[in-house]
């Protein structure tokens, strides 16, 4: 593939995301020789000289691992612009700098505007970019925009309207960093490149699917944001529903951006709404209490910084989703995510139906159902749980596991999600970014749930100990259907 050339403007260049993810990812792309000509303008409020900014970039790259001798050459392409997001003259100055860099580096008028900052300014910035002519370019112009994309459907619509004034839908790259994860991208390949899975991938052979994304960290310094968000908006509206859509989608007729995204949209359209009284029947909310993690005591959510001591915000969500189409009728998709849980782990378990008759039945010992486990993180790989003969005399069946560890085979460390997504935005591939229709449909799904939760205080909060797997009600949710959560560790 051709190597991309562009001017990359990072709004929020002094922030955490830029430091932890964007600079190191750009460095990796540079170091692997994947970029042609490029320059970066860091944009943020505080005043910094180019040299001071370059030093910060260097530090960020160093903290993220070994650096090679070419780090000086890399940071020499970084410039800084101290910016006021509401002031046209600041945009005009930025535009002038952009033009100079464009001609100095020969960047063909290609521009990426990466918004990695407080979401309340996304709309304003997009409007100014157009009004102050930063989007008048000879090459491509693309907007890469971090989450959260709105707070609910209404605010997402407003934001979308604002950014659509300056960018068309195919110039907008809405980040969901889960879509950059190696094993999330692998879901489609596992499904569509294997004769053994796709024929079974439906309600005749699958009994239920379980998607867990658990974290050990608490809310850390993000109390102010999280109080207004909670796990439902922070994780379910985006990452969890995205994984569900990849698991449930029909095979696309081609692997193009449009075809893949429209199949995902159809899943969202088939998602059965959960509203009113059904919310507390099919969804469970949790909030972490104090507890012990790795032998250290950690505080309850309500004791965290910037958190209301009587907070009603959920730090855990479990839910049962139903997809009303021919393929999935009757198959529950269970999702579960939370902070301060027992382990940091993202896993998908596909549980196949029981065989028609168990020849190997013994009291208290039935054969295990077949499971396909997709390990998203920290390990990357797949495990297939089968049954085989116990060696020795007799015909007893015993569970065996076939394991594939992604890293073990490929040798190399798989690139970070952000590295892949940045590269995709540079080369113009929007497949692993969320289309507006996906965003809108997932907000309508989630809004029904927030409507109930925000208006009723959960008296049991805090209802799970830090270091546990969440509230008991999350187990009950599956028990009602005759299932249980397969252990994730
Ligand atoms: C982010 C959420 O989108 O995803 C965070 O805002 C969460 O609250 C994070 O911690 C989890 O991402 P990962 O890649 O560590 O699973």
Automatic annotation (TrEMBL):
Residues 189-486 form the Glucose-6-phosphate dehydrogenase C-terminal domain. SUPFAM superfamilies: Glyceraldehyde-3-phosphate dehydrogenase-like, C-terminal domain (SSF55347), NAD(P)-binding Rossmann-fold domains (SSF51735). PROSITE patterns: G6P_DEHYDROGENASE. NADP(+) binds at residues 45, 84-85, 147. Residues 9-186 form the Glucose-6-phosphate dehydrogenase NAD-binding domain. GO terms for biological process: glucose metabolic process; pentose-phosphate shunt, oxidative branch. It catalyses: D-glucose 6-phosphate + NADP(+) = 6-phospho-D-glucono-1,5-lactone + NADPH + H(+). Substrate binds at residues 177, 181, 215, 234, 339, 344. The keyword Hydrolase does not apply. GO terms for cellular component: cytosol. GO terms for molecular function: glucose-6-phosphate dehydrogenase activity; NADP binding. Its EC number is 1.1.1.49. The active site is at 239 (proton acceptor). Pathway: Carbohydrate degradation; pentose phosphate pathway; D-ribulose 5-phosphate from D-glucose 6-phosphate (oxidative stage): step 1/3. Signal peptide: none annotated. Keywords: Carbohydrate metabolism, Glucose metabolism, NADP, Oxidoreductase. NCBIfam families: PRK12853.1-3, zwf. Catalyzes the oxidation of glucose 6-phosphate to 6-phosphogluconolactone. Belongs to the glucose-6-phosphate dehydrogenase family. This is Glucose-6-phosphate 1-dehydrogenase. It comes from Mesobacillus selenatarsenatis (strain DSM 18680 / JCM 14380 / FERM P-15431 / SF-1).
């Amino acid at each position: 593939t051709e190597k991309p050339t562009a001017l990359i403007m990072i709004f929020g260049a002094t922030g955490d995301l830029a430091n932890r993810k964007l600079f190191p990812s750009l460095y990796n792309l540079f170091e692997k020789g994947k970029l042609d000509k490029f320059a970066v303008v860091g944009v943020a409020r505080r005043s910094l000289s180019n040299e001071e900014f370059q030093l910060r970039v260097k530090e960020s790259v160093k903290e993220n691992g070994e650096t090679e001798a070419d780090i000086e050459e890399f940071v020499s392409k970084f410039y800084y612009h101290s910016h006021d997001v509401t002031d046209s003259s600041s945009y005009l100055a930025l535009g002038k700098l952009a033009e100079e860099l464009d001609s100095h580096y020969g960047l063909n008028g290609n521009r990426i505007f990466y918004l990695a900052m407080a979401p309340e300014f996304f709309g304003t910035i997009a409007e100014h970019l157009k009004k102050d002519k930063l989007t008048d370019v000879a090459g491509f112009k693309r907007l890469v925009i971090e989450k959260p994309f709105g707070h609910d459907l209404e605010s997402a619509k407003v934001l979308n309207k604002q950014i659509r004034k300056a960018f068309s839908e195919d110039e907008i790259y809405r980040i969901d960093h889960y879509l950059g994860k190696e094993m999330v991208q692998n879901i489609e390949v596992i499904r569509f490149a294997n004769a053994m899975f796709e024929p079974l991938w439906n309600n005749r052979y699958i009994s239920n699917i379980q998607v867990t994304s658990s974290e050990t960290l608490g809310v850390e310094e993000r109390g102010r944001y999280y109080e207004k968000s909670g796990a439902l908006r922070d994780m379910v509206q985006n990452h969890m529903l995205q994984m569900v859509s990849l698991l449930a989608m029909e095979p696309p007729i081609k692997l193009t951006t449009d075809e893949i995204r429209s199949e995902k949209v159809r899943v969202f359209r088939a998602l059965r709404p959960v509203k009113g009284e059904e919310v507390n029947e099919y969804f469970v909310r949790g909030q972490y209490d104090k507890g012990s993690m790795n032998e250290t005591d950690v505080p309850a959510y309500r004791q965290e910084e910037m958190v209301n001591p009587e907070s009603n915000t959920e730090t855990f969500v479990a839910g049962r989703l139903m997809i009303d189409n021919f393929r999935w009728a009757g198959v529950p998709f269970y999702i579960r995510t939370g902070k301060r849980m027992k382990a940091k782990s993202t896993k998908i378990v596909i549980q196949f139906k029981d065989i028609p008759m168990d020849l190997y039945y013994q009291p208290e010992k039935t054969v295990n159902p077949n499971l396909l486990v997709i390990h998203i993180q920290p390990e990357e790989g797949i495990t297939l749980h089968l049954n085989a003969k116990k060696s020795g005399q007799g015909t007893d069946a015993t569970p065996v596991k076939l394991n594939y560890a992604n890293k073990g085979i490929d040798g190399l460390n798989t690139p970070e999600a952000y590295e892949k997504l940045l590269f995709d935005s540079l080369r113009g591939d929007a497949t692993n970014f969320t289309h507006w229709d996906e965003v809108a449909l997932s907000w309508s799904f989630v809004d029904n749930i927030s409507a109930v939760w925000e208006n009723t205080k959960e008296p049991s909060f805090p209802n799970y100990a830090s270091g546990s797997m969440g509230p008991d009600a999350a187990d009950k949710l599956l028990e009602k259907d005759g299932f249980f959560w397969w252990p994730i560790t």
